[in-house]
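[Automated response] Your request has been received and processed.

Submitted sequence:
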Amino acid sequence: MTSFDVQRVREQFLILQQQINGYPLVYLDSAATAHKPECVLQAMLDFYRTDNANVHRSAHTLASRATQKFEQARQRVADFLHARRREEIIWTRGTTESINLVAQTWGLQSLQAGDEILLSAMEHHANLVTWQQVAKQTGARLRIIPLLESGELDMQAYQAMLSTRTRMVAIVHVSNVLGTVNPVADVVRLAKQAGALTLIDGAQAVAHAPVDVQALGCDFYAFSGHKVYGPTGIGVLYGRKEILTQLPPWQFGGEMIRKVTFTESEFSLPPLRFEAGTPAIAEAVGLSAALDFLCEQLAAGAEVYQQQLLQRLLQGLQQIDGVSLVGQPAARQGVVSVVLAHAHHHDVCQLLDAQGIAVRSGHHCAMPLLHSLGLAGTLRISLGVYNNETEIDALLQALRQALELLHD
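Generated structure:
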């Protein structure tokens, strides 16, 4: 293994020091939500203790400090994604709301009957259902890019599907079921050649490797704070300024207005145009601290470490009778799903929990993908920077025991 100091990292997550059912907690569900290091919790506590006030409204000292921290957090996100400017970062509640914002502003304004929206067969419901409903409202057509048997995107099929009717390509960066890392730079390049816009769902990507939206060339990029060791209730939508300035507001109220009369309203420029009401201020501060933490770990070798841990997991799973991997993508990050020959995934999940091991079972908000694979659900194992070899070995041993028990 790399020299990445996982023990030092684990010391920053007090939640991992507890026992579940008399066993040390082994948390392997970070794709659902990641735990929060002490620096994130402390940043939010410090804000509430010393700087708590509403932002962009009052002139008193606390309000000025709160606004400064809030906008510094926005700049931190811009730096993290390598956006050109801070104004291209919009605060949302998470990836789901970010995608809905684009669909309800650009989608309803721009799409019409005959237009086409391209999604992949591996999309999370947050992306699929949102564009499905907008297509119904506008008369646009939803088209699904198929997958190869490996669980990778069929790029030949994708290229053949692009046409002058393609208006939007909305695709996941990393699959939350298969762990597949999509070649999003190539996806974006081909979409541009067809004159289409692109939206990337980065919820499962940003915690595992650096993201550069300018290098990707995408028009929109979305992620959630709680997937990158930050708070829940805060998310990000990156959008190119040239597009954001052309979009109407989605929600209305305070914060997003420039001038109001009883009959008319003038709206602020982006990003405030899309941030009606009091925002999640402490959560933005916490997310900024989380990104500092994550970048520190990536600089220390966390990306390579997590890949090594992933390979240990994959090799171990392949040696257990009755366990089959779902997908064999050449590029994978953080997530492994398996099906079990002689046991139900829910039963195994409960037996693992009895030994303090937290994994996820079910359809993982990707029912159409699993249906296309002939599956009702899987057992999903997902990694974070705090996981170690001992935990992987404990999972593998407990999984063997569970399958033996259920098979008998």
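Summary generated for your ticket: The mean pLDDT is 97. The first strand starts at residue 19 and ends at 20.
If you did not submit this request, please reply to this message.
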